[in-house]
Specification:
By secondary structure, this protein is an alpha/beta fold. The chain has eleven helices and ten strands. The strands form two sheets. It has a five-stranded mixed beta sheet with strand order 3-2-1-4-5, with helices on both faces. A five-stranded mixed beta sheet has the order 8-7-6-9-10, with helices on both faces. The radius of gyration is 21 Å and the shape is globular. The structure holds 5'-O-[(R)-(carboxyoxy)(hydroxy)phosphoryl]adenosine and zinc ion. Zinc ion (ZN) binds next to helix 5. The site of zinc ion (ZN) has 6 residues, from helix 5.
Length: 362
């Protein structure tokens, strides 16, 4: 089944064509086009929802046209007018269903994607599959990894950790589709904490990738920040205190030089990674799982990946750690298509609505 996935929950506008063969677990990505308005938001230090949605209105159709075109003609460059003419034919003939992010996210941004997807489903008479953006971050792990010819098959039960700009959640999967929510952040998400601390340090938005880069410039730090809720028995997280702790240290400084900035990044990253890894591995042990699936923008962080690998090896049950290729860790439509391959229940387009507060139900 070939699916056109569409993602517009935050500042990205993305469309992708993916396919999962009935006999195989893995999802093949034929195209994954992403247009981001992040540079606009970097200038304002955060996302202005209204501006994000306005950009998405401009770019969504060109992005969909490109995704359809590239899936059919991966190596053929063509004039835009030709692409616009051919794309509807490709959608009509080659695509079996459309998958759309219905939440959670910014209401204006979600509406742009959902209403466009509903229109396409109606006009082209295609089934429409509503997708939860958070879950989709974990299904990015089913995308065939081009780096390895044969990807390790994901075994169950498995723990899923979602760490994005807006969410931090732990889930237990008994199989590919059945899951239960174990816990999540009580306040800020891990990515949100990184972005807010980045702002304290005058880094541009979003700050996660730069914090990683700066942290790698030093091997130690004179700062040491607490890993919140590290020792509690639950599977909850809390990151707003960390931001306050960093702010307190920043206020004490006489001057902020590059070395100090890098050391704060190092200590911040360490505190966040420490609790993410510890709690996920504790859940893995408690439920005796065979795999851990990581997902969300923060999972693009290599130190986080390395730390998971290292500490999982020390466990007797030695669960296999899966993380998506980095381009599928941050927001993209291929993961929306991938999630729809597994949760392929279609809905009449009339019943599909954007839901900014969507969370977990299974
Ligand atoms: O999943 P995502 O692309 O968007 C949401 O659904 O929120 O995640 C964005 C978050 C941002 O907070 C960003 O700072 C963080 O992912 N991020 C990183 C890295 N790349 C992006 N955090 C740490 N290290 C990175 N390399
Ligand atoms: Zn996301």
């Amino acid at each position: 089944m070939k699916i056109l996935g569409i993602e517009t929950s935050c500042d990205e506008t993305s469309a992708s064509v993916v396919e999962k063969k009935a006999t195989r677990e893995e999802v093949t990505v034929y195209s994954n086009i992403i247009s981001s308005s992040v540079e606009l938001h970097a200038a304002t230090g955060g996302i202005i929802p209204e501006r994000a949605a306005r950009e998405q209105i401009k770019y969504l159709i060109p992005v969909i046209v490109d995704a359809l075109w590239k899936h059919k003609y991966p190596n053929k460059k063509e004039d835009y007018l030709i692409k616009y003419k051919i794309a509807p034919e490709i959608l009509k003939k080659d695509i079996d269903a459309i998958a759309i992010t219905v939440g959670p996210g910014l209401i204006g941004s979600l509406l742009v994607g959902v209403e466009t997807a509903k229109t396409l489903a109606y006009v082209f008479n295609k089934p429409l599959i509503p997708v939860n953006h958070l879950l989709a971050h974990l299904y990015a792990n089913f995308i065939r990894n081009t780096k390895y010819e044969i990807q390790n098959t994901i075994s169950f039960p498995a723990i899923g950790l979602i760490v994005s700009g807006g969410h931090t959640d732990l889930l237990i999967f008994k199989n590919e589709t059945g899951f239960k929510w174990l816990g999540g952040t009580r306040d800020d998400a891990a990515g949100e904490a990184l972005d807010k601390i980045g702002r304290l340090l005058n880094l541009s938005y979003p700050a996660g990738a730069e914090i990683e880069k700066r942290a790698s410039q030093v091997v130690d730090s004179r700062f040491s920040f607490k890993s919140p809720l590290l020792h509690t028995e639950d599977f909850d997280f809390s990151f707003s205190g960390l931001k306050t702790e960093v702010l307190r240290e920043v206020r004490k400084l006489e001057k902020m030089d590059e070395r100090t900035r890098n050391e704060i990044c190092f200590a911040t990253q360490k505190a966040i990674i420490n609790v993410l890894v510890a709690k996920t591995l504790r859940a893995a042990q408690k439920f005796n799982v065979r795999a851990i699936l990581l997902g969300g923008g923060v999972v693009a962080n290599q130190t986080l990946r390395d730390e998971f690998e290292l500490r999982a090896k020390r466990l007797v049950l030695n669960p296999h750690i899966f993380s998506p290729e980095k381009k599928y860790s941050t927001d993209n439509a291929a993961m929306i298509g991938a999630a729809a391959c597994f949760h392929s229940k279609t809905e009449n387009w009339r019943n599909i609505e954007a839901n900014p507060e969507l969370y977990f139900s299974a």
